[in-house]
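User: I'm writing a tutorial on reading structure tokens. Could you give me a worked example: one chain, its sequence, then its tokens, then a sentence or two explaining what the tokens reveal?
Assistant: Sure. Here is the example chain.
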Amino acid sequence: MNSKYLFLILTILLFGSCSKNPEKNIEHLLGYWEIKEVQLPDGSKKNYTYNDTVDYIEVSDSLTGFRVKLKPRFDGTYETSKDSEQFTIKVENDSLNLYYKTPFDSWKETILLATGEELKVINKNKVVFLYKKFIPIDINK
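And here are its predicted structure tokens:
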């Protein structure tokens, strides 16, 4: 086999296997998230060392879901704002987008990263939000 032909096949396989699959991020959205950092379009960052609220995100099989703000309590329960934001998930141009709609507004966020530990999204104003998985404080330990 010609070495150029072999190199071409290996290159295609390598880049094909590394191709971006944004749908894989969906499985990591579910859960409790707390804001860790916000990066503004000018590059400046604001770090959050303490949050009195967390976001809970839930996704259904029909590629819809909701996000609601919760206030953790020391007894392990949560106080809810009762204001949930409904969203629809769409894969567009190798990106995973969440389209939100409330009675007051509608907007889009693009998922840049979603793992079991971190969630990174960007909005239309080019503000990047980095979340970390929320771990509740257990006062019984």
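What the tokens reveal: The longest helix spans residues 3-17. The longest strand covers residues 78-92.
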